[in-house]
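Batch manifest, entry 17 of 40.
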Amino acid sequence: MRKAMLELRNVCKTFNPGTINEKHALNGINLTLEEGDFVTVIGGNGAGKSTMLNAVAGVWPIDEGSILIDGIDVTGLPDYKRASLVGRVFQDPMTGTAATMQIEENMALAARRGLFRSPFRAGVSRKERAMFKERLKILNLGLEDRLTSKVGLLSGGQRQALTLLMATMQTPKVLLLDEHTAALDPRTAEKVLSATKTVVERDNLTTIMITHNMKDAIHYGNRLVMMNEGQVILDIKGEEKKKLTVEDLISKFAKASGEEFADDKTLLS
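Output type: structure tokens
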């Protein structure tokens, strides 16, 4: 039996409580990911998807409940104290890399994160450079031959793929992907998703991937979670997920929530 790697227990989060802008973003959400689970998360605007990821990352404190990563209660820990446990790739390709530094320098920072020796020691070793090349080959973007290129010269897709590698350099307990292909064109998004699948499977990473694309949510991962009004209303896995279609998903949402699925961005995807 696989161990639980991430547990959200009755997690609640309300923004602007007591005001006209009060928003119940998470309403007692319960979710457990076992080691190696690759969970795609889908839902309409305001469903609580990004709020859930921010809660796991420790971006803000939750109001109620608890969050455990690999059995460690991290509920009261801020994001910087969870950094060794959590890897994250954001929607914006400009986030997560240093534009004025070379590819190998960015990767060196990620590789040395949390180590005793200074991450800013001069130069990149021959051993590190060889390792970076091997990892970059997975992306199939030719970046292994551009180690000394400034990251600011890369395309959005190349930067996002590089950020993915950097987020997983020191193998995280949980990898959070927050619509990490939403800002990319379809062809580039497909390449980044393919690289994501390769990295996740190679390192057996416990992963949550938020997406607005129903086809991607169905195609990738071993579990699909649908959220609505700050709660998990569908959790589909195994053979049921393999046979799932977009039409099935829309129908299941209507049955579970009692309303039609009406998020234009998701439906248009």
